[in-house]
TrEMBL record:
Record family assignment: Belongs to the drug/metabolite transporter (DMT) superfamily. 10 TMS drug/metabolite exporter (DME) (TC 2.A.7.3) family.
InterPro entries named in the record: EamA_dom, EmrE-like
Statement: the UniProt record of this protein carries the keyword Cell inner membrane: no
Cellular compartment(s): Membrane
Residue ranges occupied by any EamA domain in the UniProt entry: 78-209, 219-347
GO cellular component, one term: membrane
Name this polypeptide is given: Permease of the drug/metabolite transporter (DMT) superfamily
Organism: Bosea lupini
Recorded topology in the membrane: Multi-pass membrane protein
Entries under Pfam families matching the protein: EamA
Transmembrane regions: 81-100, 112-130, 142-162, 168-186, 193-210, 216-237, 249-271, 331-348
Region (Disordered): 1-52
Coiled coil: none
Entry keywords, A to Z: Membrane, Transmembrane, Transmembrane helix
Length: 364
């Protein structure tokens, strides 16, 4: 399963958060008025420990402190907050997909999800919506929409039928496929060390597939397919990012998916119950929020600092699968995941070094 990361399409953003005025906190009055007396000493205010601020003043002071902390936080710290929040949101979305299972056809779920996501994007775009429809690469936009659909079909199908931890661990192989695609399509150079790491990563994937005398698990293979198509999404975004807006990419993704899914969703339509509608709307809104949060995280923070946080998805997936679906990760899943994570971390570090080196050698 893969949600496309649009970090390559936008630059690092800045937060412009104004400071709220601090509301004074005064001591409570006891309601009694002292008798005037020349010898009476002036009344001293109650010490802070005895003063009881009102509820509004306490909340305002707390909000003010939070704004001050947020404004003083480093870009990577703010990006980390966005990233961790996105992963928590995605955990809810994945759990909702797993909960619906096969009760609602996957085609129908994806159609409803995309309609809600597109509506949210249209509202956010507002008056700039006509500008967001302008594209210099309509063919590549359509191709990206198709491989996004393929990635979703493969990834979410596997998610329903295999343990969450296994599906999540296999999805980490997307970085390995990106390395291969960068050489074949983007004509990037990859050194021997990264090729070795990529090869070891694929060995980890094979361990998680756990081949037996009966062959490979079909659903696990679909999870690998989702990672493969997810790598295609990443490469296409790198190309589109040189000329296209983020809203344009999301809008064309929605149009392609809705056009392709319209007839199959109608043919396979099963009217959801009230409880199923709740989960459908929830996963759609959380999916949209997660995509926005990840995009914001990479706008604010550095990719090399944030990317390793993505592996906490495995912990969240294992926890969700164990608590809500009584799933226990197998030893082969844990062993293969360890190899894939190690190879991926090494690849990302090498990529970061290569990027820094190219930036330093570039002319001013």
């Amino acid at each position: 399963m893969s949600e496309d990361r649009l970090s390559d399409t936008t630059g690092r953003g800045s937060e412009s958060i104004g400071l709220a005025e601090a509301l004074p906190v005064s001591a409570e009055e006891d309601g009694s008025r002292p008798e005037p007396s020349e010898s009476r000493s002036p009344q001293l205010p109650l010490p802070p420990a005895l003063s009881a601020p009102s509820g509004e003043s306490w909340l305002a002071a707390r909000r003010n402190r939070t704004r001050l902390w947020w404004r003083g936080a480093s870009p990577n710290l703010r990006g980390t907050v966005y990233m961790i929040t996105a992963l928590l949101v995605y955990a809810v979305m994945v759990g909702a997909f797993k909960h619906l299972g096969t009760a609602i056809p996957l085609i129908e779920t994806l159609m409803i999800r995309q309609i809600i996501m597109s509506a949210v994007v249209f509202v956010i775009a507002g008056r700039s919506l006509p500008l967001a429809f302008k594209t210099d690469r309509p063919g590549l936009q359509i191709f990206r929409g198709l491989i996004t659909l393929a990635s979703m079909l493969c990834g979410f199908s596997a998610l329903v039928h295999i343990p969450l931890a296994q599906a999540t661990a296999i999805s980490f192989s997307q970085v390995l496929f990106v390395t291969v695609a960068a050489v074949l399509i983007l004509k990037e150079r990859v050194d021997v060390a990264r090729w070795i790491a990529t090869g070891l990563g694929f060995v980890g994937v094979l361990i998680m597939l756990n081949p037996s005398s009966e062959g490979l698990n079909v659903w696990a293979l679909l999870s690998v397919g989702g990672a493969l198509f997810g790598a295609g999404i990443t490469v296409s975004v790198r190309i589109l990012g040189t000329s296209e807006r983020t809203e344009t990419i999301l809008i064309y993704q929605g149009l392609v998916l809705m056009v392709v899914l319209a007839w199959p969703a109608w043919a396979l339509w099963v009217w959801p119950t009230a409880e199923q509608w709740f989960w459908l709307v929830l996963l759609s809104l959380f999916g949209t929020a997660g995509q926005w949060l990840i995009t914001k995280a990479y706008q604010v923070g550095e990719a090399a600092a944030l990317a390793p946080l993505d592996f906490s998805r495995l912990i969240l997936a294992g926890f969700t699968g164990f608590v809500f679906f009584a799933e226990v990760p197998s030893l082969t899943t844990l062993a293969g995941a360890a190899i894939v994570i190690g190879a991926t971390l090494y690849t990302m570090r090498r990529n970061a070094r290569g990027r820094i080196g190219s930036d330093l050698s570039a002319p001013p």
